[in-house]
Design goal:
228 residues, alpha/beta, Rossmann fold, three-stranded parallel sheet
Length: 228
Amino acid sequence: MKHIGIVGCSAEGAALCYRTICSEGAERLGAHVHPDISMHTPSLSRYVACLEAGDMAGVADVMLDSARRLERAGADFLICPDNTIHQAFPLLAERSPLPWLHIADAVTAAAVGNGYKKLGIMGTRWLVESEVYPEKLEASEIAWLRPSPDEIAETARIIMDELVPGIIRPDSISYFRKVIARFKDAGCDAVVLGCTEIPLIINDANSALPVLDSTRLLARAALDAACA
């Protein structure tokens, strides 16, 4: 099996991705079996400072530093369980010492496989206002919808102030569910959980639409690649 390198960003999303690889690896491969995994996670403040300044080159440099460390640790390929910083991916892909799996590719492949035609996109303000998902979805002829400006602001606040530090509040769950219900009313047939912390509070059981859980979809794509 190939050695998976995880370029960590926020702790909760990176931890969920790591746990998914380990637990689902055992389900596929046998008790206690999973690929070798190494993770490097710099201080989240380094990413946030770059994002707030609109410095995508700075984001790419932090990601690239992790990539180089993981190469030295023996990783064969890389994943990043954070949607937002994938905005910087074009700035680092050619400089990376190792190949990557792109989180939006994993989500788009699942959407195509399920026959979805229009997706709602949820995530941080930085992610939702970016082209990370639109360009991947449009290439597969899938329509998409962003939340309203007020919804973007409130969901971003909940993500950064509550979910990233591991705080879960019932009223915030209810807010996310209302946004998803509006996506359904607008003709969406699934919703992208485009922040790796959203699966902490939203899943198929409490969502008005089927969810595309970017965290677990990336973890499964990494398992596939490691076992190929």
